[in-house]
Amino acid sequence: MTTAGILLVAVAFAVWGVCGVWVSVIDIRERILPKRILWPTAGIVVVLYLAASVVESEPMRMLQVVLAGGSCGAIFAIIYYIYPEGMGFGDVRLVTVNGLAVGWFGISAAWVGIAAGFLLAFPLSVWFLLRHGVKKGMATQSPFGPFLVAGSGLVALAEATGVTAFP
């Protein structure tokens, strides 16, 4: 990649990283992932990636970014509409933004990032079930956003440093 392309992608990741930390703190405190932060971040990331794909003459990168974000968001939206008690729509928005951001490295990287978020949240879920019992543990609300951000962030960091474990 050229210096300009690297800089554009790095700025996109920095914007996404700041957003991720910001919305994670809000989710922990208030149990909400605000769209007033997520959608502008998505727009900025897309514009920066579009510029990077033009600079690098890689239009397919932009297509994979859009497909990654769209597919992650669509699957979570379906899950939300089937079982809305399981998560809030803010999680759907966040997964869409995460998919866009990690999608620079490929659709599979975006999906692995989402899966990593589930894996990171798993111990807390088990703890709630053990501590409160199945019925009350399933009803206990815990913030999912920080785990989704951390999972996608770890995959993005691995990809950016050249560590790739998926096609």
What is the mean predicted local confidence, pLDDT? 91
Structural class: mainly alpha
Task: Estimate percent helicity.
Answer: over 70%
Number of strands: 0
Element-level helix/strand string = HHHHHH
Note the overall shape.
elongated
How does the SSE layout of this entry go?
Elements: H1 3-30, H2 35-55, H3 59-82, H4 89-102, H5 107-139, H6 145-160
Helix pairs in contact: 1-2, 1-6, 2-3, 2-4, 3-4, 3-5, 4-5, 4-6, 5-6
Feature tags:
167 residues, mainly alpha, 81% helix, 0% strand
Describe the structure in your own words.
By secondary structure, the chain is mainly α. It has one domain (3-160). Helices cover 81% and strands 0% of the residues. Helix 3 packs antiparallel against helix 4, helix 4 (89-102) runs antiparallel to helix 5 and helix 5 runs antiparallel to helix 6 (145-160). The longest helix is centred in the last third of the chain and has 33 residues, at 107-139.
Compact overview of the structure:
The chain is 81% helix and 0% strand.
